[in-house]
Amino acid sequence: MQRAFWISLTCAMGLYLLMVFWSIPFVAYEAGGQVPFDMRPMGYGLDEARSFLQALTAEGRAFYLGTQLKLDLVYPALLGLSLILGLQLVIRQPWSTAFGVVALMATASDYFENFLISVMLHTPVDEIDEATVQVASFLTLSKSIGHTVCFVALLTGAMFRLGRRLLR
C-alpha cells in the first residue's frame, strides 16, 4: 500500500505541476489574465463566469475543453487515490475511513465541476444560467474544502506518526 501511495502521489503532483505551470496559465492568458473556474477555490458568481467566458479566446476555449479538461480527467482520480491510501497509512480506523469518504466526495465534486465547466464552455455566454453557475461554483468550493480537510488530516497524521517514531 505504501508503494501505491507514493506512485499515485508522485503522478498526481506531477500532473498538478504540469497544470499549474503550463495549462492553467495558458487558459488564464487566453482569458485576459482571468483565473479559470477550477482555480477559484472560493467559488464565483454569474457575472464572473460570464466575464471569464467573454474574455476567453476561441483558442483558449478549445484548449480548456481539450487539453486542460483531459488533464483534469486523470488528476482527480490520482489525487483521490493518493489521499485515501495516505490516510489509511497514517490514521487509524475509523478516522481513516471517514476522511477517505471526504476524499471520495471531493473527487466526485471535482468530476461534476469539470462536467459543468464543459457545459459552460459549450454554451453561448448570454445563455449561461444562474443555476448552472451556482452548482458549478458550489462544486468548486466543495472540492476545495474536501481536499483541504484531507490534506490537513494527512499531514497531521504523518506528523504524529513521525513524532511517535522519534520518541521511541
Summarize the structure.
By secondary structure, the chain is mainly α.
Keywords:
mainly alpha; elongated
**Average pLDDT over all residues:** 96
Strand content: under 5%
Radius of gyration: 18 Å
Count the DSSP helices: 5
Q: Major sheet, described briefly?
A: none
- Provide the helix percentage: over 70%
What series of H and E elements makes up the topology? HHHHH
User: Which segments are poorly predicted (pLDDT under 50) over 5 or more consecutive residues?
Assistant: none
Report the count of strand segments: 0
Which structural class do the helices and strands define? mainly alpha
Please give the alpha-carbon distance between the first and last residues.
24 Å
Question: Which outline best applies?
Answer: elongated
What would you note in describing this structure?
It is a single chain. With 168 residues, this protein is an all-alpha fold. Helices cover 82% and strands 0% of the residues. Helix 4 packs antiparallel against helix 5. The longest helix is centred in the C-terminal third of the chain and has 38 residues.
Secondary structure elements and their pairing?
Blueprint: H1 2-30, H2 46-55, H3 58-90, H4 95-122, H5 130-167
Helix pairs in contact: 1-3, 3-4, 3-5, 4-5
